[in-house]
Amino acid sequence: MIVDKMTFFYKFLKSPKRVGSVTPSSIFLANAMLKNVDWENTQSIVELGAGTGAFTRLIQQNKKSSTNGIIYEQDTEMRLRLERLFPEMSFHSSAENLFEDIRDLGLEQVDCILSGLPFANFSQTLRDRIIDAVVQSLRPGGTFIAFQYSRQMLPQLEKHFSDIDVSFVPLNIPPAFVYLCTK
């Protein structure tokens, strides 16, 4: 949607370290991010950094009605818009609080966590806190699927996940790497 692209571009110009890209993720990247989700056995799915909802739409289309959808977006305007579009999901603002938030929702751990967070723009301390929250929140055998515009996060992810598969999505602006990590 043109509105999503304009909103995203405006947010990027206003705060490039928090938004991380000039345009929302393409359908090619969204499909690459979600193709390995085992929808039949996923009871809980989290999205970190939802932006304008490129992945959220596909989550809504594919998840079972009984699956908990938990969405994180720090930008208040974008989060409120997503809350209006997807009222059946739970919304939060800070990925650092992931573990506490899922506990507040009555969950021990979750099956899948998707991330569009621009880790390259974060301090190492913030990256550590978010990855620690992801690892703590993810059930054994669960998946963490993240995209990045470089391979910078690979060494950090290798410290926490038993299996990592990296793929490349050239049909995105900018082209992106998708990390499929299994706990």
Automatic annotation (TrEMBL):
Residues 31-165 form the Methyltransferase small domain. It comes from the Bacteria. InterPro entries: SAM-dependent_MTases_sf, Small_mtfrase_dom. This is Phospholipid N-methyltransferase.
